[in-house]
Amino acid sequence: MKRAAIFLSVGLLSLGLVSRAQQAQPTSSSPWSADITEIRRTAALIPGRKASRINVLKFAESHRTKNFSVKGEPATPSVQARTVFQVVYPDGYVMVDAGMDEPMHKQIGRGAEEPYFAEQARQVDRALRGARAIIFTHEHGDQVTGVIRTPYLAELAPKTILTRAQVRTLETTPQFPDLRITEEQAQRYHIIDYDHYMAFAPGWALIKAAGHTPGSQMMFIALDSGREYLLIGDAAWHMDSVRKVSGKDAPWIVEDTAAVGDQLKWLNTLTKTENNLVVVASHDDDEQKDLVARKLLGGKLE
Ligand SMILES: [Zn+2]
Known about the structure:
Order of helices and strands: HHHEHEEHHEHHEHHEEEEEHHEH
Shape: globular
Low-confidence stretches: 1-27
Bound molecules: zinc ion
Number of helices: 13
Strand content: 15-25%
Helix content: 25-40%
Mean pLDDT: 91
Structural class: alpha/beta
Radius of gyration: 19 Å
Strand order of the largest sheet: 1-2-3-4-5-6
Distance between the termini: 47 Å
C-alpha cells in the first residue's frame, strides 16, 4: 500500500499536479501543533508498569540575567540550571540528557567563570553508565556532550538513543565544532525517527518539537501514580516564558521563533487546563527547587 502511494505521488509530481506546499518536508516545524489527547493515547501504547518517579540533578549553573531567557523581562540576576533527568521504572531507569564536561561548560559560558559541580558531574557519569537507555530533549552541548566526549563511549553509545533530526544537526551544524560526528560515528548510537509522536516506554511518549533546535523533542511521561509530566527541554529556559508566552531574547541562540511561539502558547494552555500535568523546563532553577521541595521531582540521582 505504502509503496503504491509513493509511486502515485511521484507520478503526480512528474505530471506537475502536486503543489509545492504538498512537497514540503513532513518535518517542517512551523506552524507547530500538538494534541494532548493523542499524546496520552500514544503514551499508553506500550504495555508494562509505568515509571514510579523522576529525579533531577543540577551539575552546573550559568548566570544569565532574566531578559535573555524571557523577552521583555528586566535584566535581573537569574540562574540557569544545567541538569539531567532520571526516569525510574521498577526494573531500571532511563536518563534524559547526558550533561557535559567542564570544557564544554566553559565554552557554553563564553568566557564567564560559572559554577561546575565536579561531584555532581561524576554522579551524572555514574548514572549514565547504570542506565538502560539515554535519550535527549535536544542536541545542544549541555545535553549530548556526555555521550560524545566521554571515556565511556563504547559502553554508552549502544544505549544512547538519538533521533535522526538530532544526528543531522550533529553531523552538519553542531552547536560547537567539537560536537560534530560523522555518519560512521553516528552509527554507534541507536538512531530513531518518527513524525509527530512516538511511544517510547510504558506511559512515555516522545513529541516532536523542532524549534529551539531541529532535533528538539518533548517527553510526556505518566507515572504509575497517575501523575503526568512534560519535560519540555529548552522550549522555554524559564517557566515565565510559558506564563507570559514570551520567548528567549538571546542573540547567541538561533531558533525557529514561530515554532517556539506555537509551543509556548500550547504549553501556556496546558498549564491552565491540565491540573495533573507538571511541565518541567530543563534550565529553570526556580521551578526545579520548588518541584523538589514539593516532592514532585526527586532532588538526586539513584
Ligand atoms: Zn539548548
